[in-house]
Amino acid sequence: MRRWALSSALLVAAVAAWQGIASLPGVDNLTLASPVETARALDHDSSLLLSNAWTTLEEVLLGLAMAVALGLAAAVVMHLFRPLRDAAYPLLIASQAIPIPVAAVLFVLAFDYGIGPKIAIVALICFFPVTVNVVDGLRSVDEQLLKLMRSMGASRAATLWKVELPSSLPRLFSGLRVAATVSVIGAVFGEWAGADRGLGRLVLLGINQLQTPRVYAGIVILMIMSLLMFGSVSLIQRLVAPWSRA
Amino acid sequence: MATRLEAPAEEPRSVEEEAVRLEEVTRRYPRRRGGPVVALEGFDLSVRAGEVVAVVGPSGCGKSTLLELVAGLQDPDAGRVVVGKGGSAAERRTASAFMPQHDLLLPWRDAIGNAALALECAGVQRGEARRRAAPLFERFGLGRFERARPSELSGGMRQRVAFLRTLLVGRPVLLLDEPFGALDSITRGSMQDWLADALAAEPRTVLLVTHDVDEALVLADRVAVLSPRPAHVRTELVVDLPRPRRRRELVTEPAFAELKARAMEVLEA
Fold this sequence. Notes:
- The complex is a heterodimer.
- Helices cover 81% and strands 0% of the residues of chain A.
- Chain A is mainly alpha-helical.
- Chain B has a domain at 18-104 and 173-268: 3-Layer(aba) Sandwich (Rossmann fold), CATH 3.40.50.300.
- The longest helix of chain B is centred in the last third of the chain and has 17 residues, at 185-201.
- At the A-B interface, helix 7 and helix 8 of A face strand 5 and helix 3 of B.
């Protein structure tokens, strides 16, 4: 309850500051739309914004799903073959240095304007936090517990399935929370590189057409999307692994 | 329905038959700097089938190493470790069930699911494993707690579940590594009585490691007192106290006090 009150107060303060700055004389309303103008755009363009938001959400969810599938598989393979883990870790880190906007352009050039390159970009961003967290989770299982499994005659597969994977669920969800939050940015970059719909494209178009309030409205929706993604991950964690968080 | 625990195997055994034997065992751990740490050296000990032997020693003397050697989780650098008929690590693993100091219950499984894990590791399907574990819960008075999560159980209850899991592994030799070491002293006392009863109901060959002399005397037929590292058996005491034993009653017995004094004397020498 208190947390909500505090969050609301902070939000109100931020919006007030935003309105205050936007109302200052000499502030160009082509670069800064006020909260009031943004709200008006949200209302006026709601169907346009929402239909584009769906496209972006689709890209985000598919990209995230792909990142989880690939990340889990990569983490398990890396965990089972230790030399591979040590060899692949630097590559994994290096993959984070790929400039996402550049990769997005290359992906669109290589493939097409469809949803494929966007999913790939989202997956590229989300793969790292998922994989690294699951690898670390698999590795940090109590040594004594592994000895116990060995003494009970458990096969490697049984230990992985019954102990190591469930043990790393909390880490998977930590990675997912990070991934879910940044996935939205990935989708936007993917759309900037070339798309015919989506919130990212709408925002870019808004900038070019000097429709500043619509740009801000798009950003607000992207923020809400990030929050919802984060909240959904926490909710799923509470359902799937209620033991993992107080 | 009868509880199927498939142990102890091949009864009846002669009293003289040895279930566990360590001969001249040495175990060293290499260190990055300096010489190796010698955990055990020239270590001899045997446990007859059906016997409960407690090993007491100063902390850090190599007691856990001893159990892991018997459990087939480690190999000796010299000497021989035999459990049942087999001397290889794999044979030792399949002849013994190991109970670590911490309960290591899986937080995502309920109590019976945790105990049933032992059967699942032997290839039993999950549902069938739970079904087979249930009578044991009834018998040891844990029926009400079958579906409780570990986080809902007290330390003593968790340790009982861990012990049932150890029984369900279905091996003739139980290896208990300070099973109550993480509990407060009051709980520990009642757990010792409970374990004594449990072993009376489900007789097994037991090798118990502890730093608590009282615990050793309450539970064991024989107590091996170890030296500091590198550990070897300094003396063996036969605990000829009548059973069933109750810790509360036992501590006032002169015979108990005398055994304890002798054990302490050797430990502190």
